[in-house]
Design brief:
The chain has 4 helices and 13 strands. By secondary structure, the protein is mainly beta. It has one domain: Porin (Beta Barrel).
């Protein structure tokens, strides 16, 4: 068994550590010491997570070793008190009131909206490694535009160990995939779809945590360019793909105040 970590993932972890040390004075205060409201804005910290990731693409672009890269996750952390405030202020039609009444008011919400949606969530930088049993290669980018990403903690929000689940629609990707064989060929494809994820998070302080996440992307993939040799599979106009991603993320939170409404 070979464990491979791409250089870009090491650089990502180094960058995360550098930012964390630079922001350390702001994190010296406990989260409870930050006022919930200040100058007409609400306390909504930004969570930034970065770390190595492994991607499993469908055949013929799958080998014994997954495609490597790193993940970058950014989202706003909305406290239950703010959700309660929004619930009281928003006027909804009577037929939707029952849905609003079922909103989770016990856990923090993780929401990704503009401009955070413009940042990529995954980068794939995986050259072929024939000596390691990996003839395939992949290079690409994936992000979650216009995503409402709600993570609900199973258990107390303050617990040191948390299980977070989430879903998002839509997702988008641009990927170059090479099977490394004449039969499989290569393609540059655009993908649109949806994702679901589950993450086990170990929280050390309010500002620092480490997570292990699995994410499943179901996407409609359409090749923009195909390179097929003689005897290769027939050209496809589109295909339904499942792409699995496992990632290790180092998270730190930046204290910010934002206008809610």
């Amino acid at each position: 068994m070979h464990i491979l970590v791409p250089p870009c993932a090491g650089l990502a972890l180094f960058a995360a550590a550098a930012v964390a040390l630079a922001a350390a004075p702001a994190w010296a205060e406990d989260d409870d010491e930050w006022p919930l409201e200040h100058d007409g804005k609400w306390y909504i910290p930004i969570d930034v997570g970065v770390g190595p990731a492994a991607h499993w693409f469908p055949a013929p672009y799958r080998s014994a070793v997954p495609e490597l890269g790193f993940s970058v996750g950014t989202y706003a952390v909305v406290a239950p008190e703010i959700v309660q405030m929004l619930k009281a202020r928003i006027q909804v039609p009577p037929k939707y009131q029952a849905l609003v009444d079922r909103l989770d008011l016990e856990h923090e919400w993780h929401v990704r909206r503009a401009p955070l949606t413009y940042l990529p969530t995954h980068l794939v930088l995986s050259p072929p490694l024939p000596t390691q049993g990996k003839p395939t290669s992949a290079y690409g980018i994936a992000w979650d535009p216009l995503l409402l990403d709600l993570h609900v903690g199973l258990g107390n929000t303050e617990a040191p160990v948390q299980l977070l689940v989430g879903a998002g629609l839509p997702t988008a990707s641009l990927t170059w995939l090479d099977s490394g064989t004449p039969q499989g060929g290569a393609q540059f494809a655009v993908g649109l779809g949806a994702q679901a994820s589950a993450a086990l998070t170990l929280r050390f302080t309010w500002a620092f945590s480490v997570s292990l996440e699995w994410r499943s992307d179901l996407r409609v993939s359409a090749p923009l360019v195909q390179d097929l040799s003689d005897g290769a599979a027939t050209k496809q106009s589109w295909a339904l793909w499942h792409v699995g991603t496992a990632s290790l993320g180092v998270h730190f939170r930046l204290p910010t105040y934002q206008k809610v409404m």
